[in-house]
Amino acid sequence: MSPKKIIKSMTALFASMAFLFAGNALIVTSIGVVLKERGEGPLVVGIISSCFFIGGLIGTISAHKIISKIGHIRSFGLFGAIFGISAMLHTISNNLIFWAILRFLIGVCYYGFLMVIESWLNEKSKNAIRSRILGFYEIVFYLSFGIGTLIIALNLSRHNVFILSAALILFSSLPLNLIKIKEPILPASSPISIPKIFDIAPLAIITSFIAGMLINGFFSMAPLFILLQKFNNQAVSYFTFCGILGGFFAQTIMGTISDKLGRKFAIITCSSIGFFTMLVFIFFKPCLYIQYCLSFLLGMGIFCLYALALARANDVLVIKNKGVELGRGVLFCYSLGSLFGPLILGFLMQYFNTKGFIWFYISLLGFLILFTINRPHILSKKFNKKPGNMVMLDD
Hints:
The chain has about 400 residues and is an all-alpha fold. It has one domain: MFS general substrate transporter like domains (Growth Hormone, Chain: A, Up-down Bundle). It contains 16 helices and no strands. Helix 3 (about 40-70) packs antiparallel against helix 15. The chain is globular, with a radius of gyration of 20 Å.
């Protein structure tokens, strides 16, 4: 079956994704704005944001069991209901512990959503066309997430932000329940052994961990980075959107570069773009419009790193049926990095203001460049040597 026919057969799933990613973008990126308006410091923002990723870790480990018992569509509805209820409950109390619990639940549900979506896509797309199916998935993600962040520019009230995000998440369940679609069969769960995976693919593990810190540190704390400079919510929205736009642009070219020149070269290239971009903030005091451009470049530098880590892991994979375990291990490390990123940024920005944000990115990107330089160069695998069918193993 051609990629177009497969995408058409999963129209309901992609429509659900669009609502899901837009709603999640709104609630994730708005938390810094909402807490800052309440007078909370960066450390509190970082702690509350990290609760989302603690939930993400639990979701990465446990969602597989839920999906295998009740199926993909019912799991999607379950996660959507809990996510939507948790988002709306933000409006009934200002208690930070209560909000932390709600963020935890939202994190469990969101990573459960990702397990549903990615296992569904992997089961439906064969190796020869998988990269094109996943490419369309990336397009849906970036467009939807970008729209979600732009909603912040409307300066909605705190109440309306949470209600709207909940509505978008609940809408995401409708296409799967209204349009007939065949559910996939989920493969049996396998244990995650991080030390074992690190021995096989150390660069993939380190890159995914750092990618989690950088990417989700950006989503959680970049709004605060802009607000601490005395800019408004509209500036927050545009700054975040520019970063996402840069990531989208990089995705269109970095895949080709990594296939031809290797994942190592691509990781160094992305890390260097982000590293030198953040150096500009150290030596200059750019105006807001220049910061939008720098955000675009930073997005180019960091948003491809997780995909490159997964590709690198599969490049060194010897036993093909271990691809699922390897992928879950890389995702687990990404989730772990996502947990620590906002926490560390919150601490740094509490005591060093915007400089803490800048040095966080410079330090991690610099370390990743040095670590990658010392790893062996491996070209991507070619499982089908016919023209136009060059793919990597990305189960």
